[in-house]
## 1
Amino acid sequence: MGEVSFVEVSKRFTLRVDNEVHHVQALDRVSFSVRDGEIVALIGPSGCGKTTALRVAMGLDSSTSGRVTVDGREIKGCGHDRGMVFQHAELLPWLSAMQNVMFGLEMKGMRGEPLRVTAEKYLELVGLSGSKNRRPHQLSGGMKQRVGIARALAIDPSVLLMDEPFGALDAQTRESLQAELLDIHARTKKTILFVTHDLDEAVLIADRIVVMKEGRVAEVMTVPLTRPRPDLSIVRGLPEFAGTRYKVWRALHDDEKTVH
Amino acid sequence: MVDIADKHSDTAAPQEAPERRPLPRWMITCASIVAVLIFWEIVGRQINPVFGSYPAAIAVAFWELLVTGQLWAALFESLQPFLLGYGLAIVIGVPLGLLIGGFRVAEAALGIYVTAGYAMPLVALVPLLILWLGLGFAVKVAVVFLMALFPITINTWLGVTAVPKTLIEVGKSFVAPDLVILRRIVLPATLPYIMAGVRLAVGRAVVAMVIAEFFTTISGLGAVIINSANNFDTAAMFVPIIILMLMAIGLNWLIGWVERKVAPWQAEISGRDRE
C-alpha cells in the first residue's frame, strides 16, 4: 500500500528582511492525493511551495493547518513509511555507497546478515554493485543520486518522496536516470511523489501532474500516456507528449495573458 | 642578464621541456631549517654568550645534558603531567563541545563560560590553583588541562554549528534519534574541526606545562631552563626550549597522521592525500 493525501494543508512562516517582517504563505489549503503505485509530479515556478509540500509530507517541516495522511494515517513527523530522496543526494561523505544504504536500514533496526544482503540488493537495483565500496566523492553526480535512491528504497517505504532529484545533473545523466526511475517503478510498484521544475521530466515520468502556483494547487492534470514507457525517446515523439507538455506550459503561464 | 638569457635558450631543449615536478615538501622544510641554522650560527657568534647563543654551542650543551642523564629525567618528569592534562582536555573537551554545539539549551547555558575561559589569564590563576591542589603533580595536570581544554571545546562547538543542515535532515528522515544523529552524523562531520582544535591545543599545553613547572614545584624541563638561566648558561637554557618545540612539531605530525587514519575522506576531498 502507498496512498498519500494532502487535506487542506497550509503553511505560513514569517521572514525578517532588513527589519521588515514578511508573512509568507508557503502553502495555501493544498489538497490532492496520490494513489497507490502512482507517480505524481509537483511542478511550479520556484517559490510556489512544491518543495515545502514535499517536506511537510516527509515530516521535516510542519504545517500550520490541515493534514497529510499516508495510507489513511495522519503523519506526525518522519517515519519509515516514507523514503526521502534529496536534491543533492546528501550522502554521508565518510561512508561508502554500501554503508550509506545500510545507514537507513540500521535506523530501521536491521542488523547483521539481512542488513548487508538488503543493501546489496538495492545497490544492484540501481546498477551500482561494482562501486559499492566507493566514497561519495569518488562517485559521479548521477551515481550519487542512484545511491540516494537506493538508500530511500531500501527501507521499503510505502511512498518515495523525491525533491528535484535530477535537477542538479547534466542533461544526459538526467535522461538515463529518468528512464531508470521508470524501470525501478515498474519493478517495485512504489508510489512516488516527486518535485520538479522540468516540464519534460514531469510529462515523461508522471501519471498525473499537480501544477502549483503561489502556494496553491492551480491544476491537476492526467498524463494520457500508458505504462510501461520503456523507451523515453519514443515517448518524446508522441503527440500526447507534446500536447500534455503544452497544456502544462499553458497552466504555468496562465496569468500572462497572450496578446494577439 | 645576457648570461640568464643564454642559459634559458640552451636548456629549453627537449630534455627539460616535459613535466617539471615541484620540489617535495620535506626538501623545502629542510632547506629552510638549514638556512635558519646557518644564519643563527653566524649572528649568534657575534653576541656575548650570556645574552645569546648559537646552534653549535647548544649542540654541545645538549650532549652534556644527555650523557649526564639529566635531560631524560627532566623530559620524563615533564611528560607525565603534560600527557595526562592534554589527554583529559581531549576526553572532556570534545564531548563538551558536541554538547554545546548540538543543544540550544547547553549553548545558552555553557557557551559563555567556554568563550570567557579561552581568554582567561591562566598564569594569574596559578596561585589560586596551588591553594586548591598543592604544589605537586595535580596542579601541573590542572594547568595543562585548563589551557588545552578551551581551544578543543571551542573548535568542536564551531564544527558542530558548521555541519550542513541537510545532513542532519538525512538522519531525521530515517527517524534517527537525536543521540544517534549526534554520534553518527554530527561527530564525523565535525572531526576536521576537532582535529584542528586538538592541534591548536598542543602549543598551549606545552606553554602551560612550562608555566606550571616555573610557578609550582620547579621540576622537569622547566627546571633545566631556570637553573641554566640562573647560572648564565644560555646555551644549556636553549636545550629544553628546543626540545619542547621539537615535541610540539612531533605531536602535530602525530595528530596529522591520526587525522588521516580516522578521517581519510577529508584529505581525499581536499586533494592533500597525494602529497
Note: Residues 1-14 of chain B have pLDDT under 50 and may be disordered.
## 2
Amino acid sequence: MGPMKSFLWLACLLTLFVFTQRLPGQNSSPAKPDVAQIEEPDSSPPSKLSEKPKTSPKPKKSGPTRYNFPAVKQVLMEPGLRAHKSSKIPQQYGDTTGKVFVGHRAAIEKYAGWGWIRPEKASWRKGRWVFLEENTNGGKAPGRFLKHPNLDNDYQYRLYGSFAPYKGYEPNFDAWVPVFKIKGFEKLGPAQRPNLHPPRPKGRPKSKPTSGGARSNPFNR
Amino acid sequence: MTFRIFALGIALCFGSSFASANEQIFVSGGPSLRSFERHKPAPHDRFWGNFLTSSIARYKEVKPEIGSDLVTWLVYRPAYITRGQESNTDLIAEIKNMLKPITSNIVWFESRKEFLDYLHKGQDRSKIKIRRLEYFGHSNKRNWCFDYSNRIDGAVLEPLCLHVDHLKSIKNRIFTSDAYCRSWGCHSGEEYSRAWYKATGTRMWGAIGKTDYSTGAIPKLSTSGGKWVQ
C-alpha cells in the first residue's frame, strides 16, 4: 500500500500543477477573437453613403474591451441601414444631359409633392416646392426604386429635366405648385433639409372648412 | 281643306316643340394609378371602374325620367389608358362594352378645355340644351379632379381639373331652365355647389363630407353627419 499511496499523492500534485498553469492561458487567449468580432463590421468595405460617418472605434485604454460593443453597434447600424435603403437607388438613372438642378426629397405629411428644387448654382433661397411629373422614358422619381417612395426622405439628387408650362393642384391646401418634368437623376446622398415652406393658397379660403372637410383630407373615401 | 292644312301646321309646330329632345350628360372622371396609391394608408381606386359602375347604376335609377333625351357619357380617357397599361388591359374596350347597352354617344375627353368645349359646342345649344349633368370622380370642396394621382402622384395638373375659378367660363345658356346638376364627388357641397350656381345660374347638389364609390353602386355619404345640399 506504501508505494501505491505515494503514487496517488504524486498524481494529485501533478494534476494540481497542470491546472494552475493552464488557467491564465484560458483567460487571455479568447480575448483576441472578441476584439476581432467588434472590429469586423468596420473592416468590411463600406458603401459610398456610409463613407461619411465612418469612424473607427478607438479602443479604450482602461477597462475590458467588450464594453466597446454597444457603442460600435450604435455608430455603425444607423448609417448602415440608410445605406442599405438607398443602395437600391441607382447612382445615375435616365437622361442626365442638359440643365442641372439640385433636388431635396422631402416628404411632408398631408401635403402632396416631391420636394424642393433649385438650379445647381443657386442657393436654397431660390428653391421651389415641386410636383414631379414622371414618364416611362426614364423619367422616374428616385424613390420608386425603394419599397416605399418616401424612404429616400432628406436625400439630395442632381436632377435633369425642365419645369412644365402648367402647374399642379395641391388638394389639401388648395394651392398651385410648379411641376418639374424629370428625365434623369444622379444620387448625391443624405443632406439636411433646407429651411423652406411649401406654397400656401393666396388669400383666405372663401368658406370655413367643415370638420373632416377638404382641408383635413379631401379625397379619402 | 284650308282649315285642315292650318291644323296640321299647328300640330306639327306644337308636336316638334314638345318632342324637342335635350341632353343628359354623365361624366366619369379617371381612376388613379395603383403604383402611386398602393403605398398610402388609404389608397384610392382599388377598382379601376369605380366611376363607371356608379354612374351606370345612377343611369338605371333615373332612366324613367330621361324619356327621349339624348344620353351622353363624357369619359376622361387618359387615366383609363395608363391604368390599363399597369395591368396590360384594354380598359377603353371594356368601357365601350359597359356603355354599349346604354348609349352610343360616348365622348372621350383629355382636358378641361375639351370638357368645356363639349358642354358649349358638342351639340347645337340653341336647340339641344343640357337637362342633366352628373359628375362621378375625384373632387374636393373647390375642384373637380378628372385626373387625380394619375399623371402626378397625389395631385392633379392644372389643365386636367375644373376648379371653382374656372367655372366663370361656363355659359348659363347651355342649360335648360329645369336642369338637374349633381356632383357625386367628396365635399362638393361645401363650396363647389355654391360656386357652380353663381357661375351658371343652375343649382347643383353636392355632398358635405365624403362619398363612397367602393360598392360599385350609387355613391353614398360616408362621413357621419354628412348630407346632400344645393
Note: The helical segments of chain B are 2-19, 34-37, 50-66, 77-86, 91-99, 112-121, 192-200.
